[in-house]
Design goal:
- The protein is of the alpha/beta class.
- About 30% of the residues lie in helices and about 20% in strands.
- The strands form 2 sheets. It has an 8-stranded parallel β-barrel, surrounded by 5 helices. A two-stranded antiparallel sheet has the order 3-4.
- Helix 5 links the parallel strand 6 and strand 7 (about 175-180).
Length: about 325
């Protein structure tokens, strides 16, 4: 959802209750088996339901959004113009899928650090615990997007405050995601980095074609021994309207990037951007794979291969 130099740390501390491997590297929570990719679809209850109905297969994960200011859309539906956000509905409707949650914090970093939103952090923590499944939490997603105006030092403090509070509440079924908007940053990424003890996964957005910054961020993830995911993705602008042309223009490079960079989790936004108030007028078009029969066929040929993890009774066990 839109608005809405590499360095190493010595040593590796335990996070989210995760242990170490025999080689001494940190275990990354909810990592798919070697060679597998967890498929997540979003970004609201309507678009997810429409995708499942069209494709006929429940994805390995669903995604939704909340904010630190309101912590809404958890137990009941919330609508701020970007689609219906209803985490509880997704839990109930798709009991064999993991959850990916985007936590909006624009304009609230100082308040987080002061403790103004501790009750909302606790509310989110209670919800995650009750979910009883893996939850990927993107704290202040797209931290380096200029429009978000996240001052690096305050962002780091806010991110750590949230993680520390969730850990104190013994929320264990969560992986913490550090998500870049994947373009030229105004500061070195290291300036925003909360630290190895606070980050489980590095993530990027892929709305245009994969670029050099996404590749550099993937390399940074490997250097820090973290998981690497695509947290948001859609063919903005080109959409799926051109069928074979759309596939060659955006989808082919997208899936090639997944293979080249060994992406372990992929989150695709199956949405008609021009019909929701939030993004109306952006010119992003229709990214629903089911909106074009040629794209839909190519999509199913790709993601229904054994490589991609869909919902199943054994999925959570695979991600231990």
């Amino acid at each position: 959802m839109r608005p809405f130099i590499i360095f190493l740390f010595a040593g590796a501390l335990m996070v989210s209750g995760a242990g170490r491997s025999e080689a001494g590297e940190r275990h990354v929570p909810f990592t798919p088996p070697e060679g597998k990719v967890l498929l997540i679809v979003g970004e609201d209850k309507t678009s997810i339901d429409d995708y499942v109905h069209a494709v006929g297969v429940v994805p390995g994960g669903t995604m939704f959004y909340t904010s630190i200011q309101l912590a809404d859309g958890l137990g009941s539906v919330a609508d701020h113009g970007a689609g219906l956000q209803d985490g509880q509905y997704l839990l109930d409707q798709y009991p064999q899928s993991v959850m990916q949650m985007g936590l909006w914090m624009v304009g609230a970093l100082d308040g987080v650090v002061r403790g103004d939103y501790d009750r909302n952090i606790d509310k989110i923590g209670v919800w995650i615990k009750k979910a009883q499944r893996p939850v990927f939490l993107r704290i202040g997603y797209e931290f380096d997007l200029p429009l978000n105006k996240y001052e690096p030092e305050v962002y780091r403090q806010a991110y750590r405050h949230i993680v520390d509070r969730l850990r104190a509440a013994q929320v264990r079924n969560v992986a913490y995601v550090w998500h870049s908007f994947s373009n030229l940053p105004q500061h070195p990424w290291a300036d925003w980095y909360p630290g190895d003890d606070y980050v489980d996964w590095f993530a990027v957005s892929v709305f245009g074609k994969p670029n050099i910054y996404m590749k550099k961020f993937a390399e940074m993830a490997r250097q820090h021994h973290k998981g690497f995911m695509i947290a948001e993705a859609a063919p903005s602008g080109s959409g799926t309207v051109y069928g074979e042309g759309s596939w060659k223009l955006w989808f082919d490079p997208f899936f090639q990037f997944i293979a080249n960079e060994k992406v372990q989790v992929v989150s695709y936004i199956d949405l008609h951007w021009d019909v929701i108030p939030w993004s109306k007028g952006w010119g992003w078009g229709d990214s629903r794979v089911q909106a074009n029969e040629i794209v839909k066929k190519h999509w199913m040929d790709e993601v229904l291969r054994d490589k991609y993890l869909q919902a199943s009774s054994g999925l959570y066990k695979l991600l231990e």
